[in-house]
Amino acid sequence: MSATRYTYLGPEGTFTEAALRTLPEAATRELVPMVSVAAALDAVRGGEAAAALVPIENSVEGGVTSTLDELASGEPLMIYREVRLQIAFALLVRPGTELSAIKTVTGHPVAQPQVRNWLRANLPDAVWESAASNADGARLVQEGRFDAAFAGEFAAATYGLEPLVTEIHDAENAETRFVLVGRPARPAAPTGADKTSVVIWLGDDHPGALLELLQEFAVRGVNLMLIQSRPTGEGIGNYCFAVDAEGHISDRRVSEALMGLKRVCPNVRFLGSYPRAGVSAAEVRTPRPGTSDGDFTAAADWLTRCLDGRAQIT
Protein backbone atom coordinates (compact mmCIF):
# COMPACT_ATOMS: atom_id res chain seq x y z
CA MET A 1 0.00 0.00 0.00
CA SER A 2 1.19 3.49 -0.81
CA ALA A 3 1.29 5.29 2.54
CA THR A 4 1.99 8.63 0.86
CA ARG A 5 -0.80 8.69 -1.73
CA TYR A 6 -4.23 10.22 -1.19
CA THR A 7 -6.93 10.05 -3.85
CA TYR A 8 -9.83 12.45 -4.27
CA LEU A 9 -12.80 13.17 -6.53
CA GLY A 10 -11.17 14.86 -9.51
CA PRO A 11 -10.09 16.13 -11.88
CA GLU A 12 -7.85 18.92 -10.63
CA GLY A 13 -9.72 22.01 -9.52
CA THR A 14 -12.63 20.40 -7.64
CA PHE A 15 -13.93 21.58 -4.29
CA THR A 16 -12.81 18.17 -3.02
CA GLU A 17 -9.22 18.99 -3.92
CA ALA A 18 -9.57 22.38 -2.20
CA ALA A 19 -10.88 20.64 0.93
CA LEU A 20 -8.10 18.05 0.85
CA ARG A 21 -5.45 20.76 0.67
CA THR A 22 -6.70 22.19 3.98
CA LEU A 23 -5.35 19.09 5.76
CA PRO A 24 -1.81 19.62 7.12
CA GLU A 25 -0.65 16.20 5.90
CA ALA A 26 -1.68 17.00 2.31
CA ALA A 27 1.56 18.94 1.86
CA THR A 28 3.55 15.71 2.24
CA ARG A 29 1.25 13.38 0.25
CA GLU A 30 0.90 12.61 -3.43
CA LEU A 31 -2.60 13.84 -4.29
CA VAL A 32 -4.16 11.82 -7.11
CA PRO A 33 -7.43 12.88 -8.78
CA MET A 34 -9.88 10.12 -9.70
CA VAL A 35 -12.81 10.13 -12.11
CA SER A 36 -15.44 9.24 -9.50
CA VAL A 37 -16.11 8.66 -5.82
CA ALA A 38 -16.12 4.91 -6.50
CA ALA A 39 -12.72 5.05 -8.17
CA ALA A 40 -11.23 7.10 -5.33
CA LEU A 41 -12.47 4.62 -2.72
CA ASP A 42 -11.54 1.53 -4.77
CA ALA A 43 -7.95 2.80 -4.89
CA VAL A 44 -7.94 2.59 -1.09
CA ARG A 45 -9.55 -0.86 -1.11
CA GLY A 46 -6.96 -2.06 -3.61
CA GLY A 47 -3.99 -0.71 -1.67
CA GLU A 48 -3.09 1.90 -4.28
CA ALA A 49 -3.71 4.74 -1.82
CA ALA A 50 -3.66 5.16 1.94
CA ALA A 51 -6.81 7.28 2.03
CA ALA A 52 -9.37 9.10 -0.11
CA LEU A 53 -11.20 12.36 0.44
CA VAL A 54 -14.76 12.37 -0.89
CA PRO A 55 -17.86 14.57 -0.40
CA ILE A 56 -20.55 13.09 1.84
CA GLU A 57 -23.03 15.84 2.75
CA ASN A 58 -24.14 19.22 1.48
CA SER A 59 -26.02 21.76 3.59
CA VAL A 60 -28.46 22.46 0.73
CA GLU A 61 -29.02 19.06 -0.90
CA GLY A 62 -28.25 16.68 1.98
CA GLY A 63 -26.29 13.46 1.69
CA VAL A 64 -24.12 12.72 -1.34
CA THR A 65 -25.73 9.48 -2.42
CA SER A 66 -22.80 8.12 -4.44
CA THR A 67 -20.57 8.28 -1.36
CA LEU A 68 -23.17 6.88 1.03
CA ASP A 69 -23.85 3.95 -1.31
CA GLU A 70 -20.15 3.19 -1.79
CA LEU A 71 -19.51 3.17 1.96
CA ALA A 72 -22.52 0.92 2.55
CA SER A 73 -21.43 -1.70 0.03
CA GLY A 74 -18.29 -3.53 -1.01
CA GLU A 75 -15.22 -4.15 1.10
CA PRO A 76 -15.56 -2.17 4.37
CA LEU A 77 -13.82 1.17 4.74
CA MET A 78 -13.61 3.58 7.67
CA ILE A 79 -13.89 7.35 8.13
CA TYR A 80 -11.00 8.94 10.02
CA ARG A 81 -11.77 12.64 9.86
CA GLU A 82 -14.05 15.19 8.24
CA VAL A 83 -13.53 18.54 6.52
CA ARG A 84 -16.15 21.26 6.08
CA LEU A 85 -15.75 23.77 3.27
CA GLN A 86 -17.91 26.79 2.50
CA ILE A 87 -19.07 26.64 -1.11
CA ALA A 88 -19.60 29.49 -3.56
CA PHE A 89 -19.66 28.96 -7.31
CA ALA A 90 -18.27 30.94 -10.20
CA LEU A 91 -19.68 30.79 -13.72
CA LEU A 92 -16.63 29.80 -15.77
CA VAL A 93 -16.56 30.52 -19.50
CA ARG A 94 -14.10 30.64 -22.37
CA PRO A 95 -12.49 34.09 -22.69
CA GLY A 96 -14.73 36.57 -24.47
CA THR A 97 -18.01 34.77 -23.76
CA GLU A 98 -20.86 37.05 -22.74
CA LEU A 99 -23.80 36.07 -20.53
CA SER A 100 -26.26 36.50 -23.40
CA ALA A 101 -24.38 33.90 -25.46
CA ILE A 102 -24.68 31.10 -22.87
CA LYS A 103 -27.12 28.40 -24.00
CA THR A 104 -25.71 25.34 -22.22
CA VAL A 105 -24.34 25.00 -18.68
CA THR A 106 -22.89 22.12 -16.69
CA GLY A 107 -21.67 21.15 -13.22
CA HIS A 108 -21.89 18.37 -10.66
CA PRO A 109 -25.48 17.23 -9.90
CA VAL A 110 -25.10 18.42 -6.30
CA ALA A 111 -24.27 21.91 -7.58
CA GLN A 112 -27.54 22.39 -9.46
CA PRO A 113 -29.81 22.84 -6.40
CA GLN A 114 -27.34 25.38 -5.03
CA VAL A 115 -27.57 27.65 -8.10
CA ARG A 116 -31.12 26.90 -9.31
CA ASN A 117 -32.57 30.29 -8.39
CA TRP A 118 -29.63 32.16 -9.90
CA LEU A 119 -30.04 30.19 -13.12
CA ARG A 120 -33.76 30.90 -13.24
CA ALA A 121 -33.16 34.63 -12.79
CA ASN A 122 -30.15 35.05 -15.07
CA LEU A 123 -30.14 32.21 -17.61
CA PRO A 124 -33.76 30.99 -17.74
CA ASP A 125 -33.39 29.37 -21.18
CA ALA A 126 -30.02 27.68 -20.61
CA VAL A 127 -29.98 23.88 -20.77
CA TRP A 128 -28.32 22.10 -17.84
CA GLU A 129 -26.44 18.83 -18.24
CA SER A 130 -24.62 17.21 -15.33
CA ALA A 131 -20.88 16.46 -15.27
CA ALA A 132 -18.89 13.98 -13.19
CA SER A 133 -17.61 16.87 -11.07
CA ASN A 134 -17.57 20.66 -11.18
CA ALA A 135 -13.98 20.66 -12.40
CA ASP A 136 -14.86 18.12 -15.08
CA GLY A 137 -17.57 20.53 -16.18
CA ALA A 138 -14.88 23.22 -16.51
CA ARG A 139 -12.85 20.83 -18.66
CA LEU A 140 -15.87 20.23 -20.91
CA VAL A 141 -16.27 23.99 -21.34
CA GLN A 142 -12.61 24.24 -22.25
CA GLU A 143 -13.21 21.58 -24.93
CA GLY A 144 -16.17 23.54 -26.30
CA ARG A 145 -18.86 21.03 -25.34
CA PHE A 146 -20.69 23.52 -23.10
CA ASP A 147 -20.83 27.29 -22.91
CA ALA A 148 -20.34 27.61 -19.14
CA ALA A 149 -19.70 25.60 -16.00
CA PHE A 150 -20.44 26.16 -12.33
CA ALA A 151 -17.23 25.45 -10.42
CA GLY A 152 -14.87 26.96 -7.92
CA GLU A 153 -13.31 30.22 -9.08
CA PHE A 154 -9.90 28.66 -8.39
CA ALA A 155 -10.50 26.17 -11.25
CA ALA A 156 -10.51 28.90 -13.92
CA ALA A 157 -6.75 29.10 -14.39
CA THR A 158 -6.36 25.31 -14.57
CA TYR A 159 -8.68 25.09 -17.56
CA GLY A 160 -7.89 28.35 -19.32
CA LEU A 161 -11.28 29.85 -18.48
CA GLU A 162 -12.37 33.08 -16.88
CA PRO A 163 -14.96 33.67 -14.13
CA LEU A 164 -17.79 35.62 -15.73
CA VAL A 165 -19.77 35.81 -12.44
CA THR A 166 -18.49 34.94 -8.96
CA GLU A 167 -19.97 34.28 -5.51
CA ILE A 168 -23.02 32.45 -6.85
CA HIS A 169 -25.09 30.62 -4.23
CA ASP A 170 -28.79 30.44 -3.55
CA ALA A 171 -28.23 29.78 0.17
CA GLU A 172 -25.95 31.92 2.31
CA ASN A 173 -23.15 30.05 4.09
CA ALA A 174 -23.70 26.86 2.06
CA GLU A 175 -21.08 24.27 2.83
CA THR A 176 -20.10 20.74 1.93
CA ARG A 177 -18.76 18.12 4.31
CA PHE A 178 -16.01 15.80 3.10
CA VAL A 179 -14.62 12.67 4.78
CA LEU A 180 -11.15 11.13 4.72
CA VAL A 181 -11.62 7.39 4.28
CA GLY A 182 -9.10 4.58 4.80
CA ARG A 183 -9.02 0.87 5.49
CA PRO A 184 -10.52 -0.33 8.80
CA ALA A 185 -8.34 0.00 11.89
CA ARG A 186 -8.66 0.99 15.53
CA PRO A 187 -10.55 4.30 15.85
CA ALA A 188 -8.58 7.31 17.03
CA ALA A 189 -8.84 8.20 20.70
CA PRO A 190 -11.90 10.30 21.62
CA THR A 191 -11.46 14.07 21.61
CA GLY A 192 -14.66 15.02 23.43
CA ALA A 193 -16.09 16.41 20.18
CA ASP A 194 -16.61 13.33 18.05
CA LYS A 195 -19.04 11.78 15.62
CA THR A 196 -19.84 8.11 14.97
CA SER A 197 -21.13 6.92 11.59
CA VAL A 198 -22.91 3.64 10.86
CA VAL A 199 -25.11 2.06 8.20
CA ILE A 200 -28.07 0.05 9.52
CA TRP A 201 -30.20 -2.55 7.74
CA LEU A 202 -33.73 -3.30 8.98
CA GLY A 203 -34.38 -6.88 10.05
CA ASP A 204 -37.87 -6.89 8.54
CA ASP A 205 -40.40 -4.34 7.38
CA HIS A 206 -43.13 -3.85 9.98
CA PRO A 207 -44.93 -0.89 11.60
CA GLY A 208 -42.56 0.97 13.88
CA ALA A 209 -39.41 -0.77 12.57
CA LEU A 210 -37.51 2.48 12.09
CA LEU A 211 -38.79 3.86 15.39
CA GLU A 212 -37.35 0.81 17.17
CA LEU A 213 -33.93 1.56 15.72
CA LEU A 214 -34.10 5.23 16.65
CA GLN A 215 -35.10 4.36 20.21
CA GLU A 216 -31.81 2.53 20.68
CA PHE A 217 -30.18 5.96 20.42
CA ALA A 218 -32.92 7.99 22.11
CA VAL A 219 -33.18 6.04 25.35
CA ARG A 220 -29.42 6.38 25.83
CA GLY A 221 -29.35 10.11 25.15
CA VAL A 222 -27.44 9.86 21.85
CA ASN A 223 -28.16 12.79 19.55
CA LEU A 224 -28.46 11.96 15.84
CA MET A 225 -26.87 14.43 13.43
CA LEU A 226 -27.88 12.76 10.16
CA ILE A 227 -30.17 9.95 9.10
CA GLN A 228 -30.76 9.16 5.45
CA SER A 229 -32.45 6.20 3.83
CA ARG A 230 -30.86 4.52 0.81
CA PRO A 231 -32.30 1.69 -1.32
CA THR A 232 -30.53 -1.63 -0.88
CA GLY A 233 -31.04 -2.69 -4.50
CA GLU A 234 -33.18 -5.63 -3.41
CA GLY A 235 -36.49 -4.17 -4.60
CA ILE A 236 -38.89 -1.32 -3.87
CA GLY A 237 -39.35 -0.74 -0.15
CA ASN A 238 -36.00 -2.24 0.92
CA TYR A 239 -33.80 0.37 2.56
CA CYS A 240 -30.76 0.79 4.72
CA PHE A 241 -30.10 3.90 6.82
CA ALA A 242 -26.94 5.98 7.02
CA VAL A 243 -26.67 7.51 10.50
CA ASP A 244 -24.30 10.03 12.10
CA ALA A 245 -24.49 10.08 15.88
CA GLU A 246 -22.93 12.52 18.31
CA GLY A 247 -20.17 10.92 20.36
CA HIS A 248 -17.43 8.28 20.14
CA ILE A 249 -17.81 4.51 20.09
CA SER A 250 -15.87 4.40 23.37
CA ASP A 251 -18.59 6.51 25.05
CA ARG A 252 -20.83 4.13 26.98
CA ARG A 253 -24.06 5.63 25.64
CA VAL A 254 -22.85 5.23 22.05
CA SER A 255 -21.38 1.75 22.45
CA GLU A 256 -24.51 0.44 24.18
CA ALA A 257 -26.71 1.95 21.46
CA LEU A 258 -24.64 0.18 18.81
CA MET A 259 -24.85 -3.10 20.72
CA GLY A 260 -28.61 -2.66 20.92
CA LEU A 261 -28.78 -2.17 17.16
CA LYS A 262 -26.60 -5.20 16.53
CA ARG A 263 -28.96 -7.38 18.55
CA VAL A 264 -32.00 -6.53 16.42
CA CYS A 265 -30.55 -5.76 12.96
CA PRO A 266 -29.20 -8.28 10.45
CA ASN A 267 -26.33 -5.96 9.60
CA VAL A 268 -24.76 -2.88 11.16
CA ARG A 269 -21.70 -1.46 9.38
CA PHE A 270 -19.46 0.68 11.59
CA LEU A 271 -17.97 3.49 9.50
CA GLY A 272 -15.87 5.07 12.21
CA SER A 273 -15.66 7.47 15.14
CA TYR A 274 -13.77 10.66 14.32
CA PRO A 275 -13.39 14.31 15.36
CA ARG A 276 -16.10 16.74 14.31
CA ALA A 277 -14.75 19.45 12.04
CA GLY A 278 -14.69 22.93 13.54
CA VAL A 279 -16.07 21.86 16.95
CA SER A 280 -14.12 21.80 20.23
CA ALA A 281 -14.89 19.70 23.28
CA ALA A 282 -15.90 22.88 25.14
CA GLU A 283 -18.70 23.46 22.61
CA VAL A 284 -20.25 19.99 22.97
CA ARG A 285 -23.38 19.79 25.06
CA THR A 286 -23.20 18.00 28.39
CA PRO A 287 -24.80 14.52 28.27
CA ARG A 288 -28.35 14.38 29.58
CA PRO A 289 -28.69 13.20 33.19
CA GLY A 290 -28.42 9.43 33.30
CA THR A 291 -26.43 9.08 30.06
CA SER A 292 -22.84 9.95 31.02
CA ASP A 293 -20.17 7.25 31.28
CA GLY A 294 -20.28 7.67 35.06
CA ASP A 295 -24.04 7.02 35.09
CA PHE A 296 -23.62 3.82 33.08
CA THR A 297 -20.81 2.65 35.40
CA ALA A 298 -22.91 3.35 38.50
CA ALA A 299 -25.84 1.40 37.04
CA ALA A 300 -23.57 -1.56 36.22
CA ASP A 301 -22.17 -1.51 39.76
CA TRP A 302 -25.71 -1.51 41.18
CA LEU A 303 -26.60 -4.53 39.04
CA THR A 304 -23.52 -6.37 40.28
CA ARG A 305 -24.58 -5.70 43.88
CA CYS A 306 -28.05 -7.05 43.08
CA LEU A 307 -26.54 -10.29 41.75
CA ASP A 308 -24.37 -10.53 44.85
CA GLY A 309 -27.27 -9.88 47.23
CA ARG A 310 -25.94 -6.43 48.14
CA ALA A 311 -28.46 -4.25 46.30
CA GLN A 312 -29.13 -1.89 49.20
CA ILE A 313 -25.44 -1.39 50.03
CA THR A 314 -24.20 1.96 48.70
In short:
The chain is 26% helix and 30% strand. With 314 residues, the chain is an alpha/beta fold. The strands form three sheets. Strands 1, 2, 3, 4, 5 and 11 form a six-stranded mixed β-sheet that branches.
Describe this structure in words.
It is a single chain. The protein has helices at residues 15-20, 37-45, 65-72, 112-122, 134-142, 209-218, 252-264, 293-307, and strands at residues 5-9, 30-34, 51-58, 62-63, 78-86, 89-93, 104-107, 127-130, 148-151, 162-168, 175-182, 194-201, 224-231, 239-246, 267-275. With 314 residues, the protein is of the alpha/beta class. The strands form three sheets. Strands 1, 2, 3, 4, 5 and 11 form a six-stranded mixed sheet that branches. Strands 8-7-9-6-10 form a five-stranded mixed sheet. The chain has a four-stranded antiparallel sheet with strand order 13-14-12-15, sandwiched between helices. The relative contact order is 0.15.
